[in-house]
């Protein structure tokens, strides 16, 4: 059984989809804890599903490195096989990446390497792109620059706003994430091998 810690900053829609999938006894993974860098609405999903949660507020530390060390300490308490950054809006410091790599993955609302960074949906619209997508990657020390696990295109429709486009990307992100967790748990995706490519 694959044990997972999920880190969020907001509403946690991907987290909820994963918790729902994992509530099936046949699903080969379990979310053992949910963490956040602030008070986040998505922590309510953890409470609803009886999953422990923790918060490591970024603003409580003098530096990103100190915050990262505290975050890593909380993560490691749960001895996860996999850590998922899902709508987690902070870059984790290199020490955290090195400690967890390659078992640290991230969802991103664009077809990487197109439109990396915190505003992938907005940037795609601003660029006048006709399509964008969703990606799932192994986290490295770049900004959304790690090896791609899976990705899928999403068309941009006339009149799309940032909100409407993001709403169409989210279900694709959720499906990519759940499929990848299944494949990692079943040994069909080897994150170590993927990271060597």
TrEMBL record:
It holds the Pfam family Formyl_trans_N. N(1)-(5-phospho-beta-D-ribosyl)glycinamide binds at residues 12-14. (6R)-10-formyltetrahydrofolate binds at residues 64, 89-92, 106. Keywords: Purine biosynthesis, Transferase. Residues 4-181 form the Formyl transferase N-terminal domain. One of its GO terms (molecular function) is phosphoribosylglycinamide formyltransferase activity. GO terms for biological process: 'de novo' IMP biosynthetic process. Pathway: Purine metabolism; IMP biosynthesis via de novo pathway; N(2)-formyl-N(1)-(5-phospho-D-ribosyl)glycinamide from N(1)-(5-phospho-D-ribosyl)glycinamide (10-formyl THF route): step 1/1. The keyword Transferase applies. GO terms for cellular component: cytosol. The keyword Transferase applies. It catalyses: N(1)-(5-phospho-beta-D-ribosyl)glycinamide + (6R)-10-formyltetrahydrofolate = N(2)-formyl-N(1)-(5-phospho-beta-D-ribosyl)glycinamide + (6S)-5,6,7,8-tetrahydrofolate + H(+). The active site is at 108 (proton donor). Its EC number is 2.1.2.2. The record marks 144 as: Raises pKa of active site His. Belongs to the GART family. Catalyzes the transfer of a formyl group from 10-formyltetrahydrofolate to 5-phospho-ribosyl-glycinamide (GAR), producing 5-phospho-ribosyl-N-formylglycinamide (FGAR) and tetrahydrofolate. NCBIfam families: PurN (TIGR00639). This is Phosphoribosylglycinamide formyltransferase. The gene is purN.
